[in-house]
Structure formats: C-alpha cells, structure tokens
C-alpha cells in the first residue's frame, strides 16, 4: 500500500484533533419489583473509563427538563433513590429503590447522569405489572 503525502497529512491532522473518546451511556431499565411493592430496578451504566463511574452523580432532571420532554413529574418520583453500585456480575448499574410501595403502573421520568467524562439525560418509562401469585 502506497502512502501519499496527502494521506500522511490527513492522518497527522486527524491525530492532532482527536483525543480520547469517552462514551458515557445508559442501558435499558430492568425492573425486579411489581405494582404495590417497593421499587427495585437497575439501569446499566457504561463508560470507557469505568473508574469515572465511581464518582458519577445521578438524579432526576428538573421540572423544566421534564416539561420539555412532555413528561409530568410525578410526586412518587421524589421518593425514588438512585445509587451507582456494582451488581452481582460486577457491572456498574444505577440502582433505583423506594421504601414505599409504588402505586402507579406506569411512571415516566428523565434521568441525568454526570461524571468527569460527560453529562447525559435519558428518558425512561417504568412499567410495573401486578404481582403474580
């Protein structure tokens, strides 16, 4: 393969302006509780620099952000606790818990996550089925 001056210039130019890429991202929510039970759910949390996830800040977006997304911010959402932990598989997740039972079968919310590598928002719809006996 022959490398021309033009190709060398483009390779050098690209190398000068590209830095490390960190991809802070969220997975799909996995709910482990049912309607009329305290909430137990997890959202996988990814970053190319996993150490930065230890300092990640997680919480609900403001009322204004929810309004922009067309989501009414339910009062029940204020009772949900968000915590970054490692699950039993060693994967970083955001654990969602509540002490009170969740009485709403569907809850929508916008989650905000920030760490030293970035900031992101993502909307979720939480669907709770009645418990099975």
Question: What would your notes on this structure say?
Answer:
By secondary structure, this protein is mostly beta strands. Helix content is 14%, strand content 40%. The chain contains 2 helices and 8 strands; from the N terminus they run αββββαββββ. The protein has helices spanning 5-17, 63-68; strands spanning 25-26, 30-31, 38-46, 57-60, 81-86, 92-101, 106-115, 118-127. Strands 1, 2, 3, 5 and 6 form a 5-stranded antiparallel sheet that branches. A hairpin with a 6-residue loop joins strand 2 and strand 3. It is globular.
Average predicted local confidence, pLDDT: 83
Give start-end ranges of low-pLDDT stretches.
Answer: 15-19
Strand content is: 35-45%
Query: How many runs of DSSP E, i.e. beta strands?
Result: 8
Could you give the order of the helices and strands? HEEEEHEEEE
Give the overall form. globular
Secondary-structure class? mainly beta
Helix content: 10-25%
Alpha plus pi helix count:
2
- Estimated radius of gyration: 20 Å
Distance between the termini: 67 Å
- Could you describe the largest sheet, including whether it forms a barrel? 5 strands, antiparallel
Describe, in short, the structure shown.
This protein is mainly beta and 133 residues long. Helices cover 14% and strands 40% of the residues. The termini are far apart.
């Amino acid at each position: 393969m022959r490398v021309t001056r033009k190709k060398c210039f483009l390779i050098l130019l690209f190398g000068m302006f590209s830095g490390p890429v960190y991809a802070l991202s969220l997975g799909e929510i996995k709910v482990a509780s049912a309607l009329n039970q305290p909430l137990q759910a997890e959202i996988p949390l990814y970053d190319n620099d996993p150490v930065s996830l230890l300092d990640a800040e997680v919480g609900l977006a403001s009322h204004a952000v929810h309004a922009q997304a067309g989501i009414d911010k339910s009062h029940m959402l204020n009772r949900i606790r968000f915590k970054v932990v490692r699950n039993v598989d060693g994967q970083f997740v955001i654990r969602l818990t509540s002490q009170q039972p969740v009485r709403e079968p569907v809850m929508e919310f916008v989650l905000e996550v920030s760490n030293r590598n970035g900031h992101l928002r993502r909307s979720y719809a939480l669907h709770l089925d009645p418990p099975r006996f």
